Amino acid sequence: MKRERIEVVDALRAFALAGILQVNIQSFVWGAGDPLGYFDAPPGALDAAVYLLIAVFVLSKFLSLFAFLFGVGFALQWRSLRRRFDAAAARAAYRRRLVFLLAVGVAHGALLYFGDILSAYALLGFLLLHYAQSRPASLAASARRWWLGFALLTVASTAAFEALRLALPLDDDPAQVPAWALAQRAVYTEAGFIAQLGPRLADYRSVLGSTVLLGAPQIMGLFLLGALAGRLGWLARPWRHRRLWRAATWIGIAALPFAAAGAWLNFETMRSSPGDPSAIGYAFVNAGSLAAALYVALFVRLRQRPTMQRLIAWLAPAGRMPLTNYVAQSAAMGLLLSGWGFGLGATLGRAELALLALAIVVAQLALSRAWIARFGQGPLEAVWRKATYR
C-alpha cells in the first residue's frame, strides 16, 4: 500500500511537470505577458489548434495540480519531521526547507526562467506552516475560506481591470502585438546571457509579485486541500473515499466548459487585439483550473488498470526528483530557444514548441529512471534534504 501511494503521488508530480512545461515553453521567449505568449503572425490552423488545446486542457490546470501536490508533500514531510523532532524543531527544519527552496527559486527566476513558481511556493509555504498542527476539520474550514477569497478576488480584480481598460485610452494600435513584448522577444531569442539578465529579472519580479498578491488565495486553497488529502489518506487509501473521487471527477468535468470559454476568449484577443487584452478570458481560465480535479481523479480511480499501472511506473521516477527536473526544464529551454543557446525560439511555431516540450519530457523520464535506479534521489533533492535535516 505504501509503495502504491508513493508511486501515485510521484507519478502525478511528473505528470504536472510535463503539463507545466507545455505552457512555459510557449511563453519562454515573450517575457511576462500572456502565459501562452503572442502570435508573431496571423495564426494558421495548426498553431490555432495547438493554442486552444493547451489553453483548454493544460493552462492553469497543471500548476493547480502542482500546488495541490505541494500540500500533500507538506503533510507527509511534517509527519516525517514529527517522528524525528518535537514541534519547535520540526518547524525549524521545515523553515530551513523553505529557505532552500526560496534560494533555488530566486536563482532559477533570475538566471533561467522569469516564470519561476518555486519562490512563490516557498514564501506561501511559511504561511502554510502555521497550519501544520491544525485538525482536519480546521484545515477544511481554512481551505474553504481561502477558496472563497479566491473567488471574490477573481471577480473584484476582473471588474477593476475591465473598468480601467475602458476608462484609459490606448497609446498604441490594439490590433498589434505590444512593442514591449516584441522587444522582449528580440532579447530572449537573440541577445546573450548577460544582456538578458536585466529584462529577465524585471519579468521575474513582475511575475512573482502578481503571483503572491493575486494568486495567493488559490495557491493557499490548493496547499490546504493537498495537506488535507495527505492527512486523511485520500491518495494513500482511495477506496475509503470513493464518493470524494466521484465528486472530484464531476467537478473537473464541470470546469472544462469554463476553461474552453476562457481559451476561446483569449485566443480571439491574441489573434485580433493583443494590444488590448480583456481580463474576462483569464477569469474563465481561473475557474477552469478546477479541471485539475478530473486529472487527479482519473489517476486515482484507474490506478489498478494495467495501462495506468505501467504509466504510473514510468512517470514515478521523474516525480521523485521534481525540483531537479523543474530547473532542468528551464535550462533546456534556455539552451534550445534562447539567444545564448541555439536560438530556436526565433523560428519555431507553436506546434513545434509543443513537440519540443514533449521531447524534453521523454528525455527526462528516461534519465530520471536511470538516475533514481542508481542514486535513489535527485541531485537537488539530496542537497535539499541535507539543508532540511542538517
N to C succession of SSEs: HHHHHHHHHHHHHHH
Percent in helix: over 70%
Shape: globular
Nearest-integer average pLDDT: 94
Number of helices: 15
Low-pLDDT runs of 5+ residues are: 1-5
C-alpha termini separation: 30 Å
Global structural class: mainly alpha
Total domains:
1
Biggest β-sheet, characterized? none
How many β-strands, per DSSP?
Answer: 0
**β content, as a range?**
under 5%
Gyration radius, in Å: 21 Å
Summarize the structure.
This protein has 390 residues and is mainly alpha-helical.
Features:
mainly alpha; 390 residues
Explain this structure.
The protein has helices at residues 2-27, 45-57, 61-84, 87-111, 118-128, 136-167, 179-190, 193-232, 242-272, 280-288, 292-301, 306-319, 322-337, 350-375, 379-389. It is an all-alpha fold. The protein has one domain (2-389). The longest helix has 40 residues, at 193-232. Residues 1-5 have low confidence and may be disordered.
Task: Itemize the secondary structure elements and their pairings.
Blueprint: H1 2-27, H2 45-57, H3 61-84, H4 87-111, H5 118-128, H6 136-167, H7 179-190, H8 193-232, H9 242-272, H10 280-288, H11 292-301, H12 306-319, H13 322-337, H14 350-375, H15 379-389
Helix pairs in contact: 1-3, 1-12, 1-13, 1-14, 2-9, 3-4, 3-8, 3-11, 4-5, 4-15, 5-8, 6-8, 6-10, 9-10, 9-11, 12-14
